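tool=predict chain=A
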Amino acid sequence: MVLYPRSEDLAWLFSAHRHQLAEHFRLLSPTLDVVYGFLNKQRLHDLCGEAGLESPITHFPADLAEVERLAHRIEYPVMVKPQTQIFLDTKVKGRRVDRPGELVAAYVDFVRQNRYHPEIVRTDPGVVRPMIQAFHVGAAETIHSVSGFAAPSGEVELRAATKILQWPRKIGTGICFEAEPVAQGLGEKLAALCRRVGYHGAFEVEFIREGDRSLLIDFNPRFYGQMGFEEARGLEISRLVH
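tool=predict ok
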């Protein structure tokens, strides 16, 4: 039997316990460092910089004092967001903040209301600190999704789409997509990124489109919700994984 993840939790678990699972299943799971590099937003932000991929302006405050210092130095609106969705009890996407006077309270509330499973905290104690990211008001209408399969040989096959409906409406899970070409230059950079870090398998990457710019906000190293759209367009991701 082939075992393959369809959520952040399972992607992390399968990579963390790949040697034990390999005794019973056929796997296509990269190492934990590779998977967590994509699923932790701070690590992903660093990888984007190294790969020449743009991402929204993001701050990773080390403590509340740093949040207080940032409050009157950054542009608004912003989102207070979790570093990762792995083992996050609420699975909340984030909270919008529109004014400097609201940031500290929003940050404190976010920490209080959202908890991680002890296993992920033991692995990365800093994961409990939320990040603060610039919120692009038109993002709900301009999400460019690039999906595909990266082979262990280094070959990458891609499809792209625009997310035209999501729930919750402003920041949420995509439920309707429209086909479009891969934005210029993104395919080569994503392929180079996968080869550089040693990732192989299915993936979906989300970008905010802002004029000629594409800002990377998510890299999902797993099966994903709209995968049937790629299969219908000739990219049989599930068969390639198998």
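The mean pLDDT is 94. Residues 117 and 136 are 30 Å apart (CA to CA).
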